[in-house]
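anyone seen this seq b4? input:
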Amino acid sequence: MHRIVRYRGGSFETVEIPVVGEQPLTIFVNGFELATLLCTPVKLDCLVLGFLSFEGIIRGLDEVKALEIFPEEAVADVRLTKAFTPPRRRILTSGCTGGITFGMPMEGFKAFPEEATLRPEQPFDLMKQLYAEAYLYRESRGIHAAALSDGKSLLLVAEDVGRHNALDKIHGEALLRGIPTAGNILLSTGRISSEMLRKGAHMRTPFIISRTSPTGLAIAAAKRFGITVIGYCRGEGFNVYSHPERLLSQRVALITGDQGLVASH
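predicted toks r here
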């Protein structure tokens, strides 16, 4: 809890409120320093595993011999069952906390079939569920939430100051719990950038839904990979930026405009 001074209704008052936690976490792999992430200190094991998987350092849990988190030292120590050579190139992403990636391949992902469908009322229900489950967001705001859904309920929920970190935690927890991500729906409260789209493609999620917008590069990649991107899912509407054919309903009117394909019902 933090003591602050709040101005409301023409007067000041002193109150205590919860504030989002943030700390650096340095990841060591086989004794080599790999990266330092700024993150919210919850589900750190999931964060590390998801990050390593997205970056192609591990292909599965069978390649992880040991993983230890040392909160006081802000260190994660990972031992692999194979040799490891640290990547030379680091890329700062457009993440909220200055995310890091060691390569951003936008090729090599298999396109999704068109069979996956979604009713136009489902995105609203799923986003409502996400905010209902986002405990830290309700407590202090200033944080991103992400979730994996089967279209009916939320399978996994994660929160972090970084929207990329939240997806890493989702992917890492899915690996730990043996929950397949392929064919499911990815939800995020943050902007869908090309790196976020790449993470969704890695998890083989044919739908990515957000309360805000995607970038132009993310839309181009989504069209190529066969991913339906839904943005500005709030109130009574949302925008469909790619592959709107998956939203099947006689009540849906698809209108081509400057903002992309807008779905209303």
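Helices lie at 44-54, 122-133, 135-140, 163-177, 194-202, 216-225. Confidence is low (pLDDT under 50) at residues 250-265. kinda curious what u guys think
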